[in-house]
Amino acid sequence: MAVVGSPETMNERLSVRAPTMDDPWQWLRAGWRDTWRQPRLSLGYGCAFVLAGLAVTAGMWASGLESLIPVLAAGFTLLGPVFAAGLYEMSRKYEAGEQATLADAAVMHLPRPAQMAFLSFSLMFLFLIWMRMATLLYALFASDSYMPIDAFVAFALTTPQGLGMLMVGTVVGAALALVAFAISALSVPILLQHDIDAVSAMAISVRTVMRHPGPMLLWAWLIAVLIVLGMATMFVGLIVVFPLVGHATWHAYRALIIVER
Q1: 44 CB burial (10 A radius; 0-12, 13-18, 19+)
Q2: What pLDDT score was predicted for residue 240?
Q3: Which tens digit of pLDDT belongs to each residue from 204-213?
Q4: pLDDT band at residue 144, thresholds of 50, 70 and 90?
Q5: For residues 94 and 253, what is the distance between their CA atoms, to the nearest angstrom?
Q6: Beta bridge partners of 257
């Protein structure tokens, strides 16, 4: 996705409206409507995301690293908020009563491109931590240095060591996913729309999650369930799930962030 700068916005003060437990469902409904406003564009975006993931999967399989594919797939979702930036722009166009174009989905107009790069690096850093932790857990619990995918599945599901690895890995992965969600739930659309630094945008997102844990954790849970369902269909379901969550995230931002000039 290309990135271009845009003129700086006026001085703004951002505040957050308190969400309710009903709001995440409203965001999903709005995201569903946006997904089918221009289905070729939204589902095409989802296809591009899935094809990129399948290309990485094929490369790992060809390299004999197929047992790491589930780990990579889980970690890949940490970067999802940045990959969905084009979907946010599409929803912004719909909200303004306009039609979205392929260029809208492919080019990000950012007040401060370097700040988005910093946020992307932060999420990539979490992704690398997850990959490192996963390989360490494998080394600690598995006696063999490498297992084919069939042997790995049998080890993970039928042995005490494998079940222990899954339990610890789930806890570690959930903790990292929660951190990633907290810093990116609102920060990416904020950076797309406002002249603000990445640390401030992430701080707004984290404070929102910490001050309103019920609705925000429900939102995180809904996203996680949808992604798991998408992956359970051999990634095909992500063609719909990814744009749905992306569009819904824009509506979460619009519902929660109040701009004061």
Answers
A1: middle
A2: 96
A3: 999 999 999 9
A4: low
A5: 15
A6: 16
Q: Per-residue pLDDT averaged across 115-141, rounded?
A: 86
Question: Are the beta carbons of 190 and 92 closer than 8 angstroms?
Answer: no
* Sign of torsion over alpha carbons 203, 168, 133, 146: negative
Domain count, the chain: 1
Is 1:108 a contact under the CB 8 Å cutoff? yes
Q: Distance of CA 233 to CAs 152, 184, 245, 254, Å?
A: 20, 26, 17, 31
Q: What is the pTM of this model?
A: 0.86
Domain range for 138 is 2-260
Token couple for 229? 């369902």
The mean pLDDT of the chain is 85
Return d(Cα 94, Cα 114) in angstroms, integer: 27
The string over 201-226, giving b where at least 16 C-beta atoms fall within 10 Å of a residue's C-beta and e elsewhere, is bbebbbebbeebeebbebbbebbeeb
Least confident of 59-63, 65-69, 78-82, 215-219: 65-69
Beta strands in the chain (DSSP E): 2-5, 13-16, 107-110, 257-260
Closest CA to 87 of 27, 41, 20: 41
Q: For residue range 163-187, list pLDDT tens digits in order.
A: 888 898 888 888 988 999 999 999 9
β 257-260/13-16 pair status: antiparallel
Q: Cα separation of 73 and 58, whole Å?
A: 12
* Spatial separation of the C-alpha atoms in residues 222 and 181, rounded to whole Å: 12
Which amino acid is it at 233?
A: T
Of 178, 35, 197, 183, the closest CA to residue 114 belongs to 197
One-letter amino acid at 59 equals G
